[in-house]
């Protein structure tokens, strides 16, 4: 059930880069979590708008594609927030002071959790574009989100909260099998022992207990939910001052891991009322400003059921940006108190495919044959190949004006799947700049 302790997807990506410094050493925006797709999207969006952009990755993510972007003027490796949250914040603040950073943009549950611990201190140094503490407390708790949604009349899956393994066993008897086991909060644990957890599908009570044990070991709590068979749909929102300024809906056809993981093949869809109304009502009830993504999954009739709210930018935000919904730019405008202009339309049916993630999804499917979310080996391979022809799409993170991030990701995917010999052959020797102490 532990899904992340390093780069998104968990590939052994290690290629380092040289440090580059912006003119006058000043950085307008420091994008954190440079290992992740949404961070690369932010670096590109801010850079295209003429800003000086820096990127920071944790030590486990020194390979970060954002470091290779033509718009990345400064790169740095900082202490991992999972290892030491306070040192992570110290490193970020040192970069803020050194480069007179106007805005920092976190993109990961763990970095946001670390920064929230010292939010007052951070916000005296730079702008931090996240929602209020009261709203975040609601949004990061899936249990409280589900409870609030029920009060608002929003459809949610049958859910049982579990505090220990006996509760998990009882929940499987109550709900029937299969069940989905998910942490109440995606980021669990304390300083020096943090980890991000995802959802798992369990076919037996014993398997559900095994999924829950790592979360309980770090002091987390579990929700056990009924499994739903439909596609995942999500609405990304930029909300500020009591209203939504932009909403963007998408459907995911494949994820990595196959249950509730990162979207790897997805398409823009119309913002139907059955998605728009519960999204608006829930975010209004939370009073959650900033960027967030509200996730749904179809039931047996295909009707959307609320899954959760993530109070951060979606990993797949590049699809929205390619459709003209500039979430990074709007997030910066909100954080700095600048005027916002509403975005009410975007192209429908535009597809995007994260190829590295889709390869990971294919392998994950093979490892979980028999799971309700997995398909047969033949169908998985046939669909993976035929989609290049029958459902052509843009490839993330390919950008013809900024090809190096895609090249470094491809190189490391090859290294990860062809053995240590090729990895050594392709590895570079310079090391990224580390924060001075």
Describe the structure.
The chain contains 15 helices and 18 strands. By secondary structure, it is of the alpha+beta class. The chain folds into three domains: 2-128 and 403-426, Rossmann fold (3-Layer(aba) Sandwich); 158-226, ATP-grasp fold, A domain (Dna Ligase, domain 1, 2-Layer Sandwich); 232-396, 2-Layer Sandwich (D-amino Acid Aminotransferase, Chain A, domain 1).
Strand order of the largest sheet: 16-15-12-13-14-17-18
Strand content: 15-25%
CATH class of the largest domain: Alpha Beta
The major sheet is characterized as:
7 strands, mixed
Question: SS-based structural class?
Answer: alpha+beta
Mean pLDDT: 89
Low-confidence stretches are 1-18, 420-437
* Estimated radius of gyration: 21 Å
Q: State the total count of DSSP E strands.
A: 18
Shape: globular
CATH superfamily descriptor of the largest domain = ATP-grasp fold, B domain
Termini separation:
36 Å
Task: Tell me the CATH architecture of the largest domain.
Answer: 2-Layer Sandwich
CATH topology of the largest domain: D-amino Acid Aminotransferase, Chain A, domain 1
The count of domains is: 3
Helical residues, percent: 25-40%
What is the number of helices? 15
């Amino acid at each position: 059930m532990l899904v992340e302790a390093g780069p998104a997807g968990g590939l052994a990506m290690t290629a380092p880069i040289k440090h580059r410094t912006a003119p006058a050493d000043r950085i307008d925006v420091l994008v954190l979590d440079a290992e992740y797709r949404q961070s690369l999207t932010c670096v590109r969006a801010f850079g295209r708008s003429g800003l000086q952009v820096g990127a920071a990755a944790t030590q486990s993510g020194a390979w970060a594609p954002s470091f290779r972007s033509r718009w990345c003027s400064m790169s740095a490796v900082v202490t991992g927030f999972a290892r030491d949250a306070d040192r992570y914040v110290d490193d970020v603040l040192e970069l803020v002071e050194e480069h007179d950073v106007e805005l920092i943009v976190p993109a990961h549950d763990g970095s946001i959790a670390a920064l929230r611990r010292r939010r007052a201190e951070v916000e005296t140094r730079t702008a931090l574009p996240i929602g209020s503490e009261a709203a975040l407390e609601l949004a990061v708790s899936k249990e409280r989100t589900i409870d609030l949604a029920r009060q608002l009349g929003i459809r949610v899956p049958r859910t049982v909260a579990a505090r220990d393994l006996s509760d998990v066993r009882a929940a499987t008897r109550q709900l029937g099998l299969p069940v989905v086991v998910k942490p109440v909060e995606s980021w669990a644990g304390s300083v020096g022992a943090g980890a991000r957890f995802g959802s798992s599908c369990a076919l037996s009570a014993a398997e559900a207990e095994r999924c829950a044990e790592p979360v309980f070991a770090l002091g987390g709590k579990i929700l056990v939910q009924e499994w739903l068979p439909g596609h995942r749909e999500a609405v990304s929102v930029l909300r500020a001052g009591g209203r939504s300024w932009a909403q963007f809906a998408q459907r995911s056809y494949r994820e990595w891991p196959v249950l509730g993981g990162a979207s790897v093949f997805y398409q823009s869809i119309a913002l139907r009322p059955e998605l728009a109304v519960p999204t608006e009502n829930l975010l209004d009830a939370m009073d959650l400003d900033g960027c967030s993504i509200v996730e749904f999954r179809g039931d047996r009739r295909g009707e959307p059921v609320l899954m959760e709210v993530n109070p951060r930018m979606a990993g797949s935000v590049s699809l929205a940006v390619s459709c003209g919904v500039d979430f990074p730019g709007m997030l910066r405008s909100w954080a700095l108190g600048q005027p916002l202009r509403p975005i009410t339309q975007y192209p429908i049916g535009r597809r995007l495919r994260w190829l590295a993630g889709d390869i990971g999804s294919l392998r994950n499917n093979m490892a979980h044959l028999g799971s309700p979310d997995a398909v047969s080996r033949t169908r998985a391979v046939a669909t993976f190949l035929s989609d290049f022809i029958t459902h052509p799409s843009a490839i993330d993170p390919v950008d013809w004006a900024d090809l190096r991030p895609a090249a470094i990701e491809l190189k490391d995917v090859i290294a990860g799947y062809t053995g240590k010999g090729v990895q050594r052959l392709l590895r570079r020797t310079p090391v990224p700049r580390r924060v001075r102490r």
